[in-house]
Fold this protein.
Amino acid sequence: MDANLIAAFQRHAFIKATLVRLGMAGGAVGLTDGGFVVFDAGEGDGPEPYVSNHPVYGALDTVPAIKDGAEAQTTRIDLSLLPASDAAAAALASPTTQGTRVQWWEGAIDLDTGLLIGIPELKFDGEIDKARFQVSDSWNLTLECGTQAERQLEPNADWRLNNAFHQLIWPGELGLSYVDGVTRKKEWRSRPENPGVFKRLLKSLVPLLPD
């Protein structure tokens, strides 16, 4: 974490600012609960405005705590928004927004200048998975977001180490044609069935170093 930001969080009184950036197809949308700030996300677009009430899409409601992944899931968050209109709700919940990049920072604002103190801390960098729309006293749209690494945990045959996928990438290369065990379901980045045996196998393949 940035040293200036740490110092700001240790003050008795400061304005904490949540920044959320949605990489929408028509351009990035910056939302904050800190009024109005300008921040450079480092995406090559330079400093961008983050507003508390976007004229097209609405306002940021809440960003709950990060949910730890379980079993075949990675880190996830549920981003709650207050859409400005039914058109905004439809645009944010559209299937075409699935995969849209979502970034979330936590920072602090200087009481005197209204500028950010130091560099906000990046808490989440992922993408929109699906939307949930609720209607009560007001409209509330929740965007369920996951990390891009979650895609690699999906049971997708294209990511498996097998002869068919190997030849799809390297046509005519028969290196996996006669290898045992490649027909079993083994997604990338998955944990071996017996980590102890796997570790002992690695140790047997590494030459012993002299004392």
In short: Helices lie at 3-9, 86-92, 163-169, 195-205. The two ends are 40 Å apart (CA to CA). The CA atoms of residues 124 and 139 lie 25 Å apart. The mean pLDDT is 78.
